[in-house]
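To assess whether ligand presence alters the predicted conformation, the chain was also submitted together with manganese (II) ion. Input:
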Amino acid sequence: LVSRKKKQEDTVIQLGETAIGGGQPVMIAGPCSVESYEQVRQVAAALKEAGITVMRGGAFKPRTSPYDFQGLGIEGLKILKEVASEFGLKTISEIVDPAHVELACEYIDVIQIGARNMQNFELLKAAGDVKTPILLKRGLAATIDEFVHAAEYIVSRGNTQVMLIERGIRTYEKATRNTLDISAVPILKQETHLPVLVDVTHSTGRKDILAPCAKAGLAAGADGIMVEVHPNPATALSDAAQQLNIPEFQEFLATVKQSGLL
Ligand code: PEP
Ligand code: MN
Protein backbone atom coordinates (compact mmCIF):
# COMPACT_ATOMS: atom_id res chain seq x y z
CA LEU A 1 0.00 0.00 0.00
CA VAL A 2 2.87 2.42 0.63
CA SER A 3 4.41 1.70 -2.78
CA ARG A 4 4.55 4.34 -5.54
CA LYS A 5 3.35 1.61 -7.85
CA LYS A 6 0.06 1.48 -5.92
CA LYS A 7 -0.40 5.26 -5.65
CA GLN A 8 1.47 7.80 -7.74
CA GLU A 9 0.54 11.00 -5.88
CA ASP A 10 2.51 12.05 -2.81
CA THR A 11 0.76 11.49 0.51
CA VAL A 12 0.36 14.85 2.22
CA ILE A 13 0.01 15.11 6.00
CA GLN A 14 -1.94 18.19 6.94
CA LEU A 15 -1.14 19.62 10.38
CA GLY A 16 -3.30 22.71 10.62
CA GLU A 17 -1.93 25.14 8.03
CA THR A 18 1.23 23.09 7.54
CA ALA A 19 1.35 20.42 4.85
CA ILE A 20 4.11 17.82 4.98
CA GLY A 21 4.90 15.99 1.75
CA GLY A 22 5.00 16.83 -1.90
CA GLY A 23 5.52 20.56 -1.50
CA GLN A 24 7.39 23.08 0.60
CA PRO A 25 9.71 21.27 3.04
CA VAL A 26 9.18 21.89 6.76
CA MET A 27 11.48 22.36 9.74
CA ILE A 28 10.42 20.50 12.89
CA ALA A 29 12.23 21.42 16.09
CA GLY A 30 11.99 21.05 19.83
CA PRO A 31 13.68 19.57 22.85
CA CYS A 32 14.85 15.97 23.07
CA SER A 33 12.81 15.55 26.28
CA VAL A 34 9.94 17.47 27.80
CA GLU A 35 11.49 18.43 31.14
CA SER A 36 9.17 21.12 32.48
CA TYR A 37 6.41 23.48 31.47
CA GLU A 38 8.81 26.43 31.50
CA GLN A 39 11.44 24.64 29.40
CA VAL A 40 8.91 23.72 26.69
CA ARG A 41 7.43 27.21 26.81
CA GLN A 42 10.81 28.84 26.16
CA VAL A 43 11.40 26.63 23.13
CA ALA A 44 7.85 27.15 21.84
CA ALA A 45 8.20 30.94 22.05
CA ALA A 46 11.44 30.78 20.04
CA LEU A 47 9.92 28.45 17.45
CA LYS A 48 6.88 30.68 17.06
CA GLU A 49 9.11 33.69 16.53
CA ALA A 50 11.10 31.77 13.90
CA GLY A 51 7.92 30.81 12.02
CA ILE A 52 8.14 27.12 12.96
CA THR A 53 4.73 25.46 13.29
CA VAL A 54 5.53 21.91 14.44
CA MET A 55 7.28 21.21 17.75
CA ARG A 56 8.74 17.91 18.93
CA GLY A 57 9.37 16.84 22.52
CA GLY A 58 9.80 13.40 24.09
CA ALA A 59 7.67 12.40 27.07
CA PHE A 60 8.44 8.67 27.00
CA LYS A 61 12.19 8.34 26.54
CA PRO A 62 13.69 5.03 25.42
CA ARG A 63 17.10 5.38 27.10
CA THR A 64 20.05 3.06 26.74
CA SER A 65 20.58 3.04 30.52
CA PRO A 66 17.73 2.32 32.96
CA TYR A 67 19.34 4.85 35.32
CA ASP A 68 18.94 7.73 32.86
CA PHE A 69 15.94 10.11 32.79
CA GLN A 70 12.98 8.15 31.45
CA GLY A 71 10.70 11.09 30.62
CA LEU A 72 7.68 12.67 32.30
CA GLY A 73 5.21 10.28 30.64
CA ILE A 74 1.58 11.41 30.32
CA GLU A 75 2.43 14.52 32.36
CA GLY A 76 4.84 15.47 29.56
CA LEU A 77 2.11 15.06 26.93
CA LYS A 78 -0.11 17.38 28.99
CA ILE A 79 2.64 20.01 29.07
CA LEU A 80 3.05 19.76 25.29
CA LYS A 81 -0.68 20.20 24.77
CA GLU A 82 -0.94 23.20 27.04
CA VAL A 83 2.07 25.00 25.55
CA ALA A 84 1.11 24.13 21.97
CA SER A 85 -2.36 25.56 22.39
CA GLU A 86 -0.94 28.77 23.83
CA PHE A 87 1.40 29.23 20.85
CA GLY A 88 -0.72 27.65 18.12
CA LEU A 89 1.82 24.91 17.41
CA LYS A 90 1.34 21.28 16.35
CA THR A 91 3.16 18.63 18.38
CA ILE A 92 5.06 15.37 17.88
CA SER A 93 5.94 13.00 20.71
CA GLU A 94 7.09 9.41 20.96
CA ILE A 95 4.81 6.68 22.26
CA VAL A 96 6.37 3.38 23.29
CA ASP A 97 3.44 1.38 24.62
CA PRO A 98 0.58 0.17 22.38
CA ALA A 99 -1.78 0.79 25.32
CA HIS A 100 -0.95 4.52 25.24
CA VAL A 101 -1.63 5.12 21.54
CA GLU A 102 -5.33 5.97 21.83
CA LEU A 103 -4.84 8.18 24.86
CA ALA A 104 -1.93 9.99 23.17
CA CYS A 105 -4.26 11.12 20.36
CA GLU A 106 -5.99 13.40 22.88
CA TYR A 107 -2.77 15.27 23.65
CA ILE A 108 -0.54 15.33 20.58
CA ASP A 109 -0.91 15.84 16.81
CA VAL A 110 1.65 13.29 15.61
CA ILE A 111 2.69 10.03 17.30
CA GLN A 112 6.37 9.24 16.87
CA ILE A 113 7.48 5.62 16.78
CA GLY A 114 11.15 5.61 17.74
CA ALA A 115 14.05 3.84 16.10
CA ARG A 116 14.13 1.19 18.83
CA ASN A 117 10.50 0.36 18.21
CA MET A 118 10.46 0.33 14.40
CA GLN A 119 9.81 -3.40 14.48
CA ASN A 120 7.61 -3.46 17.57
CA PHE A 121 4.79 -4.93 15.54
CA GLU A 122 2.12 -4.63 18.24
CA LEU A 123 2.93 -0.92 18.52
CA LEU A 124 2.79 -0.56 14.71
CA LYS A 125 -0.61 -2.25 14.67
CA ALA A 126 -1.92 0.02 17.43
CA ALA A 127 -0.65 3.04 15.45
CA GLY A 128 -2.48 1.70 12.42
CA ASP A 129 -5.76 1.60 14.31
CA VAL A 130 -5.95 5.36 14.98
CA LYS A 131 -6.30 8.32 12.64
CA THR A 132 -3.56 10.48 14.15
CA PRO A 133 -0.54 10.90 11.84
CA ILE A 134 2.48 8.72 12.64
CA LEU A 135 6.15 9.67 12.34
CA LEU A 136 8.03 6.40 11.92
CA LYS A 137 11.75 6.44 12.58
CA ARG A 138 14.16 4.11 10.82
CA GLY A 139 15.54 1.41 13.13
CA LEU A 140 19.15 1.59 14.26
CA ALA A 141 20.09 -1.32 12.03
CA ALA A 142 17.11 -1.54 9.71
CA THR A 143 17.40 -1.94 5.97
CA ILE A 144 15.29 0.32 3.78
CA ASP A 145 13.14 -2.69 2.91
CA GLU A 146 12.47 -3.42 6.62
CA PHE A 147 11.66 0.26 7.16
CA VAL A 148 9.13 0.24 4.32
CA HIS A 149 7.55 -2.95 5.66
CA ALA A 150 7.18 -1.36 9.10
CA ALA A 151 5.27 1.52 7.46
CA GLU A 152 3.14 -1.04 5.63
CA TYR A 153 2.10 -2.51 9.01
CA ILE A 154 0.58 0.85 9.96
CA VAL A 155 -1.03 1.67 6.62
CA SER A 156 -2.44 -1.85 6.21
CA ARG A 157 -4.50 -1.34 9.40
CA GLY A 158 -6.13 1.76 7.92
CA ASN A 159 -3.99 4.68 9.06
CA THR A 160 -2.67 6.19 5.81
CA GLN A 161 -1.12 9.19 7.59
CA VAL A 162 2.44 7.95 7.88
CA MET A 163 5.72 9.88 7.54
CA LEU A 164 9.15 8.25 7.38
CA ILE A 165 12.25 9.71 9.02
CA GLU A 166 15.85 8.73 8.35
CA ARG A 167 17.76 9.10 11.65
CA GLY A 168 21.04 7.41 10.89
CA ILE A 169 22.07 3.79 11.04
CA ARG A 170 24.81 2.01 12.94
CA THR A 171 28.01 1.48 11.00
CA TYR A 172 31.69 1.12 11.91
CA GLU A 173 32.14 4.91 11.64
CA LYS A 174 32.72 6.65 14.96
CA ALA A 175 33.03 10.27 13.78
CA THR A 176 29.26 10.61 14.01
CA ARG A 177 26.81 9.00 16.45
CA ASN A 178 25.15 7.14 13.58
CA THR A 179 25.72 7.28 9.84
CA LEU A 180 23.19 9.51 8.08
CA ASP A 181 22.07 7.48 5.08
CA ILE A 182 21.31 10.26 2.60
CA SER A 183 20.67 7.74 -0.16
CA ALA A 184 17.67 6.46 1.81
CA VAL A 185 15.89 9.75 1.05
CA PRO A 186 15.66 9.49 -2.77
CA ILE A 187 15.11 5.73 -2.53
CA LEU A 188 12.18 6.12 -0.11
CA LYS A 189 10.79 9.00 -2.22
CA GLN A 190 10.95 6.86 -5.35
CA GLU A 191 9.66 3.66 -3.84
CA THR A 192 6.92 5.04 -1.59
CA HIS A 193 4.47 7.94 -1.74
CA LEU A 194 4.98 8.83 1.94
CA PRO A 195 6.64 12.03 3.18
CA VAL A 196 10.33 11.49 4.00
CA LEU A 197 12.18 13.53 6.62
CA VAL A 198 15.73 13.66 7.97
CA ASP A 199 16.60 13.85 11.67
CA VAL A 200 19.96 15.64 11.72
CA THR A 201 20.37 15.52 15.51
CA HIS A 202 20.17 11.78 16.15
CA SER A 203 21.92 10.81 12.92
CA THR A 204 25.01 12.96 13.39
CA GLY A 205 25.09 13.46 17.15
CA ARG A 206 27.17 16.57 16.58
CA LYS A 207 26.16 20.20 16.48
CA ASP A 208 28.90 21.36 14.10
CA ILE A 209 27.56 19.56 11.02
CA LEU A 210 23.80 19.97 11.44
CA ALA A 211 23.39 22.66 8.78
CA PRO A 212 25.31 20.90 5.96
CA CYS A 213 23.49 17.63 6.77
CA ALA A 214 20.11 19.39 6.73
CA LYS A 215 20.95 20.95 3.36
CA ALA A 216 22.07 17.58 2.03
CA GLY A 217 18.80 16.01 3.16
CA LEU A 218 16.74 18.72 1.48
CA ALA A 219 18.86 18.59 -1.68
CA ALA A 220 18.21 14.83 -1.78
CA GLY A 221 14.47 15.50 -1.75
CA ALA A 222 13.47 15.37 1.93
CA ASP A 223 10.07 16.83 2.84
CA GLY A 224 11.37 18.06 6.18
CA ILE A 225 14.15 18.22 8.72
CA MET A 226 13.99 17.50 12.43
CA VAL A 227 16.40 19.09 14.90
CA GLU A 228 16.61 19.28 18.70
CA VAL A 229 16.57 22.63 20.51
CA HIS A 230 16.85 23.23 24.25
CA PRO A 231 16.94 26.54 26.19
CA ASN A 232 20.06 25.39 28.05
CA PRO A 233 21.52 22.22 26.50
CA ALA A 234 24.23 21.91 29.18
CA THR A 235 21.53 21.08 31.74
CA ALA A 236 19.41 18.89 29.42
CA LEU A 237 18.26 15.58 30.89
CA SER A 238 18.97 13.80 27.57
CA ASP A 239 21.14 14.47 24.51
CA ALA A 240 22.90 17.39 26.23
CA ALA A 241 25.83 17.23 23.79
CA GLN A 242 23.94 17.71 20.55
CA GLN A 243 20.93 19.92 21.23
CA LEU A 244 21.16 23.48 19.92
CA ASN A 245 20.48 26.41 22.20
CA ILE A 246 18.03 29.01 20.92
CA PRO A 247 20.54 31.40 19.26
CA GLU A 248 22.31 28.40 17.69
CA PHE A 249 18.98 27.19 16.34
CA GLN A 250 18.25 30.62 14.84
CA GLU A 251 21.63 30.59 13.13
CA PHE A 252 21.11 27.00 11.92
CA LEU A 253 17.72 27.93 10.46
CA ALA A 254 19.11 31.01 8.73
CA THR A 255 21.95 28.97 7.20
CA VAL A 256 19.60 26.30 5.91
CA LYS A 257 17.23 28.95 4.53
CA GLN A 258 20.09 30.72 2.76
CA SER A 259 20.52 27.62 0.62
CA GLY A 260 17.06 28.28 -0.84
CA LEU A 261 16.11 24.66 -0.12
CA LEU A 262 13.76 25.50 2.79
C1 PEP B 1 13.89 10.93 19.55
O1 PEP B 1 13.65 11.44 18.44
O2 PEP B 1 13.55 11.45 20.61
C2 PEP B 1 14.62 9.66 19.62
C3 PEP B 1 14.71 8.96 20.75
O3 PEP B 1 15.18 9.29 18.45
P1 PEP B 1 15.51 7.82 17.87
O4 PEP B 1 14.32 6.95 18.15
O5 PEP B 1 15.73 8.09 16.41
O6 PEP B 1 16.75 7.37 18.57
MN1 MN C 1 17.30 13.23 21.49
